[in-house]
Design a protein that fits this description.
3-stranded antiparallel beta sheet; 7 strands; about 60% helix; alpha/beta
Length: about 425
């Protein structure tokens, strides 16, 4: 019910806010500026309030204070009629709105017996959004309440949200773990961690794409002569897939696993996938922070989904350069597809691995020969430009004609036809050529 109320109330305002901005005679540029603010404010406020809730160990209180902040700001919205007066209101609404759902997520997950059930609970938010975006449009059109009704709907839902969440149990923190996990120093390390930065970049790219559609969708419908009811109906219909996905997420996750589910969702947007297969011994893989089985599963999954997969193995002396390990790696890749390119690259001391010796050209050539003997059609030697004979080039697997000549990353010549075939014998060359 909490998700239903939170997102049902938000549905009355967020989709229609650009229409409200236009109704007070703001320019397109000003509307764009105001609708872009929430995305950037959320990046800051979600982390800040989340950190505060962990440090104070009072996430329910923090969430309820944010909810009160939302209610107060919603009362201010109808009074703001200019860009200058709307700017602080939008800032405050974004600041209080962004962290509320993540804190609610954490409290919900802590109380669920199984995290896989989260999707069914979270589906309530999608249902609330789908219903209220349509109801709000009907109220504005058919009953003549005017556009300001959206703010009062959100207020009513947030008041109910406050009442419901008053009975939610406080998250049970382990004091010792909390003290060790919550400090400004650790927060700084978290914010600068490569994984966090990568995820943040992906979120920014996704946010730009989503915002460019959602923030101006209703304005576009209005300019085409559509009613508020049509606006709400369009968004409600689009949520059917989201509701189904949330409702079935636990079954999908149980059947195919979390990573496969994410990879499958991304597959329509990815043509190629480069995967590092660092070694073929699980014990060694765990010393690097990974699990061999998960990497092998990713390779097979990506290939089964139709992505163009290429494998890279950094050959390190006395770590993964034995014939047995190289053979096991090559054989496994060939069982998935003999057309998967395998890049065996030379190691040199750098970054966090400054000890050890460089990989010799002879070792890299031996690794490449093992890959070829295992049946792989496209094996390449890397990091030693000009020192590995022909192992930087691509040859036709049927007639052995030189197709692509390389030195390092530089392509000297490319003879593959536009259709992706050998010009001499017509053999189809595996790859993405269009």
């Amino acid at each position: 019910m909490a998700f239903f109320l939170f997102w049902g109330g938000a549905a009355a305002v967020l989709p229609y806010i650009a229409v409200y901005f236009e109704s007070v005679h703001l320019s397109g540029r000003q509307i764009g500026q105001l609708t872009s603010i929430p995305f950037f404010i959320s990046l800051i406020s979600s982390v800040a309030f989340g950190f505060l809730s962990d440090v104070s160990m009072k996430n329910r209180l923090i969430m309820r204070l944010c909810s009160i902040g939302i209610i107060v700001v919603l009362f201010l919205y109808p009074q703001a009629q200019t860009f200058a007066s709307l700017l602080p209101v939008v800032l405050l609404y974004s600041m209080f709105h962004a962290p509320t759902n993540p804190i609610l997520d954490k409290m919900t997950l802590d109380e669920l017996e199984s995290p896989e059930m989260y999707g069914k609970v979270r589906a309530g938010g999608s249902i609330g959004w789908g219903i209220m975006v349509l109801v709000t449009g009907l109220l504005m059109d058919k009953l003549g309440f005017g556009i300001h009704i959206m703010f009062y709907i959100n207020i009513a839902f947030m008041v109910l949200f406050l009442l419901i969440t008053a009975f939610m149990p406080q998250t049970r923190y382990h004091e010792q773990a909390t003290r060790s996990d919550t400090s400004l120093k650790k927060l700084g390390k978290f914010l600068l961690h490569p994984s966090f930065l990568t995820i943040s970049l992906l979120i920014i790219i996704w946010g730009i794409g989503e915002a460019s559609i959602q923030n101006f969708l209703f304005l576009h419908i209005k300019q085409l002569g559509g009613s508020s009811t049509l606006m709400g109906a369009a968004l409600s219909i689009s949520l059917v897939g989201e509701i189904v996905t949330f409702s079935l997420a636990d079954k999908i996750q149980t059947k195919i696993g979390e990573f496969r589910m994410i990879l499958q969702a991304l597959s329509p947007f990815l043509d190629g996938y480069k995967i590092d297969l660092k070694c073929f011994t699980d014990k060694k893989y765990r010393t690097l922070g990974g699990k061999l089985e998960e990497v092998l599963d990713t390779i097979r999954c990506a290939h089964d989904l139709g992505m163009w997969v290429e494998i890279v193995t950094l050959v390190i002396p006395d770590f993964n350069d034995s014939n047995e390990e190289l053979w096991n790696t090559a054989r496994h890749v060939s069982t998935i597809s003999m057309d998967i390119p395998w890049h065996v690259t030379a190691f040199y001391p750098t970054y966090k691995h400054t000890h050890g010796s460089r990989t010799s050209a002879d070792t890299i050539q031996r690794a490449a020969e093992i890959g070829q003997e295992a049946g792989l059609r496209y094996v390449y030697a890397g990091n030693l430009p000009g020192r590995v004979d022909s192992l930087e080039n691509t040859y036709c697997p049927k007639c052995q004609s030189l197709l692509i000549s390389r030195t390092g990353y530089l392509v000297q010549a490319n003879h593959i036809t536009p259709q992706g075939a050998c010009p001499k014998c017509g053999e189809t060359i595996a790859g993405v050529w269009s």
